[in-house]
Design goal:
The protein is mainly alpha-helical. Strands 1-3-2 form a 3-stranded antiparallel beta sheet. A hairpin with a 4-residue loop joins strand 2 and strand 3. Helix 11 packs across helix 15. The longest helix has 29 residues. 42% of the residues are buried.
Length: 434
């Protein structure tokens, strides 16, 4: 047997006996001296590692063969908690936020594992004082309803299994599958301070005024509900104009302060199919709003760097435009009644062309708003300084970024997409005042 096979076999043997060089708290040679809960933790982490390495069925097989799996003993439940907190801590240190983990989980594992991971995050956050938790963390955990609902007098796993009507073996299988996903998550940029490290006196970013956001959301809701593409895109253009006007006012305010608002960072997750084409739409909206973006194609999310007001605009506009673009794509296929118009190649090309044309028109609307501003001579240097800050923040996060390419597989789809965007009438109308 060759050396690679011997090494692979040895790794599997270590996993079966609870050893994991990376994830385990102690090596296999110390197991005789370990408390039972730590031995279970190491065994669970080793099984999760083997599952993450592509061994099919290892979670279910391991859960049914693990001593004590016929019932959830306190030692086994405590071991599961040690394992999940050990791994989730490393994942958060590697830059993942609660919403990122939720989005990755709902794409890769079943709903039981998604719910379990929400509880794992809720347990992680318990020891930290509220003032030391970043506002983004607080908002995301609240959105996920990540609360410690279980009684502290008993271990969590048994209470969760009873709530979900799962057998002990099914509950352990879910634990291993959930932890296997966490092990697979790559290292990301740390874009928000970890719980316990946020400084209460650091000062929050300047968020968009709620009245302005309300008007923008109202315009976009109307754009999504109308069945007329021209009206939808006109409403979207007005939303872009309003957000741009607010952002320009913010840039001038920052130019007069000694401590300007620093660029922020957000991640936007995209739904399948045609993720790369949808990423192109996000990128052109990002560019029109003075931000920078990078696409993590393997996981389907984009990281956006920019001023908080601009990031709000990007998030609101892309969410709405993705709905509108999809509807226009489907309507185009229904209108042509051509089998090719329902093909993957046509639809992807349609979305790419739609994004390209919408990007051109959003940029034109932004330029018009800048030109019609009250003091363009003072605004332009302030915008240049603002853009420099965004560029520096982006390059510090992504020093080795490479430009990507996207292919067009259908000329008909490309033409239909540009035609749909041209019909949108995105030219800015009269200025909208706050």
């Amino acid at each position: 047997m060759g050396k690679p096979n011997r090494r692979h076999r040895a790794a599997k043997q270590r996993a079966r006996h609870g050893g994991s060089d990376f994830w385990a708290a102690q090596g296999a040679h110390d197991q005789a001296r370990q408390p039972a809960a730590e031995q279970f933790a190491n065994a669970i982490m080793a099984a999760a590692m083997e599952s993450a390495q592509g061994n099919p069925g290892v979670a279910k097989r391991f859960a049914t063969q693990l001593p004590g799996s016929g019932s959830l003993t306190p030692e086994l439940e405590h071991g599961a908690r040690l394992a999940d907190q050990h791994i989730i801590t490393r994942v958060f240190q590697n830059g993942w936020l609660p919403e990122d983990i939720h989005q990755a989980a709902r794409r890769r594992v079943d709903p039981f594992a998604v719910g379990l991971l929400t509880d794992v995050m809720a347990a992680y956050i318990q020891p930290f004082g509220l003032a030391t938790i970043d506002e983004t963390w607080r908002a995301q955990l609240a959105e996920l309803k990540a609360d410690a609902w279980w009684s502290e007098s008993e271990p969590h796993l048994g209470q969760w299994a009873a709530q979900q009507l799962l057998t002990p073996a099914e509950a352990l299988t879910t634990v291993i599958e959930a932890l296997a996903l966490l092990i697979l998550l790559p290292k990301l940029e740390l874009i928000k301070p970890l719980p316990g490290t946020a400084r209460p006196d650091a000062g929050a970013h300047h968020h968009v005024d709620e009245k302005v956001l309300g008007r923008v959301r109202g315009l976009l809701a109307k754009a999504e509900s109308t069945s007329f593409p021209e009206e939808a895109e006109t409403l979207s253009a007005k939303a872009q104009e309003l957000m741009t006007k607010y952002a320009l006012d913010r840039v001038l305010v920052d130019a007069n302060t000694s401590v300007p608002d620093l660029p922020g960072v957000r991640r936007i997750w995209l739904e399948t199919p045609y993720v790369d084409a949808k990423a192109h739409l996000v990128e052109v909206v990002t560019r029109a709003n003075r931000c920078r973006a990078i696409f993590a194609s393997a996981w389907g999310f984009m990281t956006i760097v920019g001023d908080e007001a601009d990031l709000e605009a990007v998030e609101l506009l892309t969410t709405s435009l993705l709905v509108q673009a999809t509807r226009a794509m489907i309507a185009s296929g229904d209108h042509t009644r051509n089998a090719h118009s329902r093909s993957r190649s046509f639809r992807k090309s349609f979305l790419i062309a739609y994004a390209a044309r919408i990007g051109e028109r959003l940029a034109a609307a932004t330029e018009t708003t800048i030109a019609e501003s009250a003091d363009p001579t003072r605004l332009l240097p302030a915008l240049a300084s603002h853009q420099q800050q965004v560029d520096e923040a982006f390059e510090n996060l992504f020093p080795e970024v490479r430009a990507g390419r996207i292919s067009i597989g259908s000329a008909a789809g490309w033409e239909a997409g540009r035609a749909a965007a041209d019909r949108a009438q995105l030219a800015a109308r009269r200025p909208i005042r706050k």
